[in-house]
From TrEMBL:
Species of origin: Glutamicibacter soli
One matching Pfam family: PG_binding_1
Superkingdom of the source species: Bacteria
InterPro entries named among the record's database cross-references: Peptidoglycan-bd-like (IPR002477), PGBD-like_sf (IPR036365), PGBDSf (IPR036366)
Name used for this protein in its record: Murein L,D-transpeptidase
Residue span, Peptidoglycan binding-like domain: 34-85
Amino acid sequence: MATQATAQKFGTAEIEAATFTGTDLPAGQSALTAKVQVLLDRSGTSPGVIDGFKGGMSESAIRAFERRAGLPVDGVLDAAVWDLLLPYATQPITTDYTITHA
C-alpha cells in the first residue's frame, strides 16, 4: 500500500490537465492514470481503486472498455481509447470537499 508521502506525487490540477501523449499509461503512479481511471469508472467500466497507479486492474478495465467499444483488445491506452473516454470528461475529474466532525 502506498504511503501518504509516495501517494502525493500530483494534485488535482495535474489530474485535470492530464492528457494523452501518444503512448500507453506511464509506469508507476501518474495524474494521467488517475484521470483515465476516473473516466473508465464514469463509463461503467470499473478500474477498481482510483489511485493513479498503472496496474492489472487498470489494464483489465481498458480491455473491458475496448471490448465493449468494439476496439482491438490489448489493454493499452491509445488514441482510440482516449477519444472514446473524452465524452466522460464533461464534468471536472476531481472535486474538493471537507470532512467535518459531526
